[in-house]
Design brief:
By secondary structure, the chain is an alpha/beta fold. The chain is 38% helix and 17% strand. The protein has one domain: 3-Layer(aba) Sandwich (Rossmann fold). The longest helix has 15 residues. The chain binds zinc ion (ZN).
């Protein structure tokens, strides 16, 4: 698959969405969809690198589009200034080749998982726990889904640790390379199956 024909949907233009969007635009992914309903805030610019001081108070999706099209005018940036919910997710994700899930809460992750299964869209999932990152691709009906891996939400204490660790950027870079790699191989079912055959079905890739 040609990267320029690819459509990738990013959930959020914040700590994960920022580096993901920048690298994917630089790599030449043709269409980048971005969902976010927040405004640019000065307190988290150190990791939300799509935005800057001049844009404080602006809609994050507008700021993201400005930065990305300035870097690569060939990228078609589609913005969704809305909260992802059960009422809109199916229409939003429709037509995308890959979803990059960097969401930070379990209800949204389960929602994304279920909708992606319905629409048969692979999800690249990334999360970080202390100094370890976890990156995996959920390919519908080829490997396990997010509910297979985490059937029950993890405790609140665990969650707050994950949120604190989100500032670590290393996992994001790896997640990006996984998206590009996956897009290049999207039509190659054998590749996907070989990935899952590499280890036990429920063991995601680990990075340190
Ligand atoms: Zn499952």
């Amino acid at each position: 698959m040609k990267l320029l024909d690819a459509k990738v949907l990013l959930l959020g233009a914040g700590g994960l969405g920022s580096p993901a969007a920048l690298y994917l635009a630089a790599a030449g992914v043709g269409t980048l969809g971005i969902i976010d309903m927040d405004v640019v805030d000065s307190s988290n610019l150190q990791r939300q690198i799509l935005h800057n001081m001049d844009r404080i108070g602006d809609r994050k999706v507008d700021s993201a589009k400005k930065t990305l099209t300035a870097m690569n005018p060939d990228v078609n940036v589609v913005t969704y200034d809305t909260r992802l919910g059960a009422d809109n997710i199916l229409s939003i994700i429709d037509g995308y080749d890959v979803i990059v899930d960097g969401t930070d809460n379990f209800p949204t992750r389960y929602l994304v998982n279920d909708a992606a299964l319905l629409k048969n869209i692979p999800v690249v999932h990334g999360s970080i726990f202390r100094f370890e990152g976890q990156v995996t691709v959920f390919s519908p009906y080829v490997g396990p889904c997010y509910r297979c891996m985490i059937p029950e939400p993890v405790s609140y204490t665990h969650l707050t640790v994950i949120r604190r660790a989100e500032r670590t950027a290393v996992g994001y870079a790896i997640e990006n390379s996984l998206v590009v790699h996956y897009l290049n191989r999207l039509s190659d079912l054998a590749w996907t199956m070989a990935r899952w055959a590499e280890g036990p079905m429920h063991r995601p890739a680990r990075v340190r």
